[in-house]
Amino acid sequence: MRALALVLAFALAPAFAQLRAPDVRYDPSLPPIVDAMVELGEVGARDLVYDLGCGDGRVLIAAAKQRGAHGVCVDIDPRRIAEARQNASAAGVEDRIRFVNADLFETDFSDATVVMLFLWPDLNMKLRPKLLKLQPGTRIVSHEHPMGDWEPERTVHVQAGGRSHPVYRWTVPLR
Prior knowledge:
Elements: H1 2-17, H2 31-40, E1 48-52, H3 58-67, E2 70-75, H4 78-91, E3 97-101, E4 114-117, H5 121-132, E5 139-143, E6 154-160, E7 163-171
């Protein structure tokens, strides 16, 4: 039994060794903001929604429950992925969501039709070149933080937690 545990530990070690500390602290979006993100992203049943830095999975759970979308939760913190999976199961939408414990900068999300973000401005900027290579028409929604000089096509302000929260939307342009 001990030998099997050692074999498993060595087999799993490379996958976990590649992960690093999260770039942002865990700060879940409040429910009115989550609803605004799903609405602003015009999420529908045919969409494949990626939440990069998904935290507890609440954005994709809402997209799946409210709009019938499928999605992919990506987070570098395995605790967040476990929590997201548990929350999706409790909400009855676990079969609509894939859970990926990975670095979002190394994740292939080229099949996304909608990308959800709640990162820091410098991380949005670092991610922007990859976002602009997505299929034209892909919607990008960011809670709180813009994309430098890439002007959002829409911005809404959501009153939650005693203050106004901007939520931005861009659409990947034709090339």
